[in-house]
Design goal:
The radius of gyration is 13 Å and the shape is globular. A hairpin with a 2-residue loop joins β1 and β2. It is an alpha+beta fold. It has one helix and three strands, in the order ββαβ. The protein has a three-stranded antiparallel beta sheet with strand order 2-1-3, with no helix packed on it. The longest helix is centred in the middle third of the chain and has 11 residues. The N and C termini lie far apart (about 35 Å).
Length: about 80
């Protein structure tokens, strides 16, 4: 079963540093769409409940957690790209 409304949370250590739900509602939605196309990621339909984010990070260890909004469950595909 597909996770119908994913939420992405990025952690550095045990501290959450970024959360995204419904990529199109994010202030950087236009940038996210452009970068997704540049790297060959799946297209992000306008108005979808997909979670996606573009972020520049300093070197270090990070964990990306995909969860369902309001505790829903299912399978999520998470892709990470290095953007030149």
């Amino acid at each position: 079963d597909v996770l119908t409304d994913p939420v992405l949370t990025l952690f550095r250590g045990s501290s959450p540093i970024l959360t995204n739900d419904d990529w199109g509602d994010d202030a950087q939605a236009a940038l996210t769409a452009v970068v997704a196309a540049q790297v060959g990621a799946f297209p992000l339909p306008a108005g979808s409940t997909d979670a996606a984010v573009v972020v520049t990070l300093p070197p270090g260890g990070y964990t990306l957690h995909a969860s369902g909004k309001d505790g829903s469950t299912g399978v999520a595909l998470v892709e990470v790209y290095l953007v030149p």
